[in-house]
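Supplementary Methods S3. Complex input for the pyridoxal-5'-phosphate-bound model.
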Amino acid sequence: MTERYFDYAATTPIDDGVIQDMLAHMGRDSTFGNPASASHSYGQRARHAVEKARRQVAELVGANADNLVWTSGATESNNLALKGVAAAAQGRRHIVTSNLEHKAVLDTARQLESEGFEVTWLQPDADGLIQPEAVAAALREDTLLVSLMCVNNELGTLTDIATIGERVRQRGALFHVDAAQATGKVAIDLASLAVDLMSFSAHKSYGPKGIGALYVGERARGLIQAQIHGGGHEQGLRSGTLATHQIVGMGSAFALAGELMEEENRRIAGLGAQLREGLLSLPGVRLNGCARQRVPHTLNLCIDHPWFNVENLSRSLAFSSTSACNSASSAPSHVLLALGLDASQAYRSIRLSLGRYTKLEDVEAAIEAIRHCLPQ
Ligand SMILES: Cc1ncc(COP(=O)(O)O)c(C=O)c1O
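Predicted complex, serialized as structure tokens:
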């Protein structure tokens, strides 16, 4: 039996063209030099490739390339944003985030809490959304930073970062957005958003694992301190030899995401709607999270039937029963608990995520496989 891949929110395969671009920056006949070796052509060519990739990433998100710092992924970007701003803080000690965030933000905020920062943990509304009014009500004179995600990795729900950003800016705090799940799915224009810091990851958008970036806008410059020291790379914000091949892969994947976005999103919206309608017509199946304010790529469903067994389904479908990004733990999803589900409903919930290579036959097979797991 073919195991159909429905876990694009956990990771995506690297696009074939992206792999070719990466290969051209690895071997001895390629651009393998150290981008920091400015004195010879090997280094200069590698630097050129890194800067091209920076422009490609910047282009997808409407940023200035000079405002992007390479990291090892969105986990590190989130750590740098939160800890870096906290380390540079003068006076302000209050941070606002939500119970729906990825562990890379939750655990980092908890760490800062243990170091004496005060954290307000926002609860989502019944739809799993963090409303701008809730954020505005939490803001204080001493609020340093607000950190929220753009697209929720478990639910696929969308946060209104444009409105929230305006509210945060009015109060003089910085706004960090984790956009790991958003690139290639929603249009992002940092030039017009009141966002100061934004985290990106390559492997959610058909690029390689282990590479990401943090956007540090002009307002945040000087208000953030490096968390990795050693050589002063990346304008002193993140030291370490740049991984040319990974960076080239991220640039190439993001350029492709920009080219394909409209067409790909139209196709996935069609497939996502078919999957959603097919599954919601089955007995006991409910959608977790808002039905409207979402991307079509990620569906989270509670299969509220005592006989339903997630294990049976995992023989035919590759999906996540809790956030794959958290699968170091088998605890019920903190996101679903925050939404008001009890532990047993959370355990009977599944996340199906679609992507570039999902076909209609995969969608049909998924509906059939889930139907098969329910009483006839
Ligand atoms: C919303 C979100 N933030 C951060 C991460 C972590 O990204 P990375 O794997 O690049 O560290 C993920 C996925 O794992 C994610 O979905």
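The domain at 16-256 is CATH 3.40.640.10 (Aspartate Aminotransferase; domain 2). Residues 73-75, 102, 104, 149, 153, 178, 180-181, 201, 212, 325 surround pyridoxal-5'-phosphate (CB under 6 Å).
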